[in-house]
Amino acid sequence: MAAILRLLLMALLSTATGHEGKSSSNFPLVVSTWPFLEAVRAGWRAVNGGSSSIDAVVEGCSTCEVLRCDGTVGPGGSPDENSETTIDALIMNGATMEVGAVAGMRYVKNGIKAARLVMLYTQHTMLVGDEASAFAISMGLPGPSNLSSTESMEKWIKWKENQCQPNFRKNVVPKNRCGPYYREKDVNVGEKTCLVEDVAENIRMKSSYVDFHNHDTISMAIFDKYGHIAVGTSTNGASFKIPGRVGDGPIAGSSAYGDDEVGACGATGDGDIMMRFLPCYQVVESMRLGMEPRVAAKDAISRIAKKYPNFVGAIFAVDKNGMHAGACYGWTFQYSVRSPSMDDVEVITVYP
C-alpha cells in the first residue's frame, strides 16, 4: 500500500512540474526583428550554452547596441531635435510577467542591461530620463557617457541645413524654420516671420519619413530549452524626435510581450501609432484564444491599418510550441530565427 501511495505521489508531482522537466526539439529558439544576425547569434550562443532566456535576451540585444544596428539601436544614432541620442529599452520575463524598462535614458549606453536592473532591483516597471541614468550608474553600469557619435552629429547637421524638415511637429507655426514653435492661434499674423510653405505637406511627409533606417527597434524573443520565454527591446528612437519623446520600445505589450503559457511577440515600426493599440499584447491574447501565429499577427496589424492607413509597421508572433510567423503593413519586413534544426540564423521575408 505504501509503495502504491509513493507511486501516486510521484505521478502527481510529475504532472505539477511537467513544464519544468520537459524540453522540446523546437527549443531553444531565438526570434528577432530584422536581419540582425550577430545579435541573434549572440542570443543563441547564450541560451544554447545553458543561460536563462532572460540572460540570453540581454546578450542578444546588447550585441545590437554595441554594433549600433541600422543606426537605430544603442548609442551614436537617431539624434533628437537638440542633437542628443537617448535610449529606450525593455525586458520581460514570460514566466513571472515581471517587466523592467527605461525610457529617455541619457548618458548610459547599455539600455537592455539598465532595463534588467530595473526588473531585478526595484519593484517598479519603468524608470525615465536622468533618474533612470542615475539609477543604472548606481547599480554599476558605466557612465556618464556621451551617447552622440560623429555619424549622429553629421546626420543632425544635415537636418538643420535642410531647415529641420521633415519633423514630428503638427498644428504649429515656427518663428523661424527650426523653431521655436507656437500654436497658430497664439501668433499674430505680423509675427509669422518664416512660415512653413505648406503645413499639410509637412504632415504628409512625416508618414513617408518613417522607415527602417530612422525608426526602428530590435525586438527579440528567446525560448530556453524548457520553453521559458523572455522578450527584450532596445532602440534610440525616431530620428529628430521632439526631445522627451518616448516610443513603443519600453512599453510592454506594444514593442514586445511574452507569456510562457501562450507565446511571444515582437514589433517594429511607427511606435507613436503602434503603441496606441498594444499590438503584441493583442497577438498573445489572440493566440491564447486559439489563433495561429500568422492569423494573430495579421489581425493585430490590420486593426492598426484600419485606423491609420498611412502607418508602417510589422510584427512577429511565436506560439508556445515554437511556430512562428510575421505580418507587416507599408513596407517589406524581415525577421530572423535560430532553432536547433538550423545550422545558422535564417531570415524570413514577409510582404505586405
UniProtKB/TrEMBL annotation:
Q: Single GO molecular-function term? A: beta-aspartyl-peptidase activity
Q: What is this protein called?
A: beta-aspartyl-peptidase
Q: Where is the signal peptide?
A: 1-18
What residues does substrate bind to? R245, V246, G247, D248, T268, G269, D270, G271
Domain of life the protein comes from: Eukaryota
Instruction: Give the EC class as a word.
Output: hydrolase
Q: Which UniProt keywords apply?
A: Autocatalytic cleavage, Hydrolase, Protease, Signal
Q: Tell me the organism.
A: Lactuca saligna
Q: Which SUPFAM superfamilies match?
A: N-terminal nucleophile aminohydrolases (Ntn hydrolases) (SSF56235)
Active site annotated at which positions? Answer: T217 (nucleophile)
Catalysed reaction(s) here are: Cleavage of a beta-linked Asp residue from the N-terminus of a polypeptide
Family membership noted in the UniProt record = Belongs to the Ntn-hydrolase family.
Assembly behavior:
Heterotetramer of two alpha and two beta chains arranged as a dimer of alpha/beta heterodimers.
Reported EC number(s) for this entry are 3.4.19.5
User: Which CDD domains would you find in this protein's record?
Assistant: Glycosylasparaginase (cd04513)
| A GO term from the CC aspect | cytoplasm
Cited PANTHER family: L-ASPARAGINASE, N(4)-(BETA-N-ACETYLGLUCOSAMINYL)-L-ASPARAGINASE
Gene Ontology biological process terms in this record: proteolysis
**Which residues of this protein are annotated with the site description Cleavage?**
D216, T217
Output the Pfam families linked to this UniProt entry: Asparaginase_2
